[in-house]
Amino acid sequence: MDLQVRHLRVLCAIADSGSISRAAATLKMSQPALTAQLRRIEQMFGDPLFDRGPEGARPTRLGEWLLVRSRSLVSAVDELERTARRYAPPKVETAPIRVGCAPTRLRIYLAKTLRQLLPGAEIRLLTEQTIDTLPGLLESERIELATLDDYPDHRLSAPPGAVYTAIAVEPLFVGLPAGHPLAAREEVELRDLAEEDWALPTPLESGPREYFWNTCATHGFAPRVAYGVNLEVGVDLVAEGRCVSLFQATVPAREGIAIRPLTDSPLRFRHLIGWTAPGPITAHADDLVRALTTTYWTESQRSPAYRNWLERHGPLKRL
């Protein structure tokens, strides 16, 4: 074992405390660990450095000789560290990047992209059940970055002080119970779902809700929304054969559920990100958009239904 400054600090602590137990508390070590370390140091010098007894630990002659030199060396090292800190550049405290997220898979891709693009940044993610609050949070600078989504005839405009950029347009697919007769089709006509019970998220915003109802109306029916539930419950209900539901095309395969495209993609939405113009994202915005777009299309290949659909149709070009 090579002698190190920390070993000299151990000797000084034992001498100053007068006992191994008190020195262990000072050094925030367990007593057995400190005793074992002292034993290794003594083996290095070939003789005991402390006489230990009921009255505590007292330096031997060798220990006293070593302590005199240890104290001067420890003091010199401490002064060296203090002086070096004067010349070290000051630490720059960086504020965390607060990210508000719509409940889409883009938030997962964004978290991955930010870790790669800004590895030293502190990222705080907050998922909102609806996107209604996110524009206001950006405008008030309570968040620096957001994932958003909008729909045909319900497009979002950036609030003052914020910038929005589109990442991709994604079709909405239908999730059917695996044993459903329509599950055998490669694509499903929306009008063929007129007699189905639907499960949709309870807090669905007015924009996507009106868009869904209006689209169904143009296909000749009013949807029978039998379940207003969150995503997790909706997935279970579909798998149990009770209803159908809308799914993002990028969703991974789900056990018991057949995820099928809708013919001609009558339902679609757009992924956006928004950031505060004077905030920390602005300097990295171009790189972030490029990296996130790449991540989105790479991750899209992990969804069998979407991958097959893209091979047949290619990406959607417009909302």
UniProtKB/TrEMBL annotation:
InterPro entries listed in its UniProt record: LysR_HTH_N (IPR000847), LysR_subst-bd (IPR005119), WH-like_DNA-bd_sf (IPR036388), WH_DNA-bd_sf (IPR036390)
Gene Ontology molecular function: DNA binding; DNA-binding transcription factor activity
Segments forming domain HTH lysR-type: 1-60
Pfam families tied to this protein: HTH_1 (PF00126), LysR_substrate (PF03466)
Protein name: Molybdate transport repressor ModE-like protein
Domain of life: Bacteria
GO CC aspect terms: protein-DNA complex
Keywords: DNA-binding, Transcription, Transcription regulation
SUPFAM superfamilies, sorted: Periplasmic binding protein-like II (SSF53850), Winged helix' DNA-binding domain (SSF46785)
UniProt similarity note: Belongs to the LysR transcriptional regulatory family.
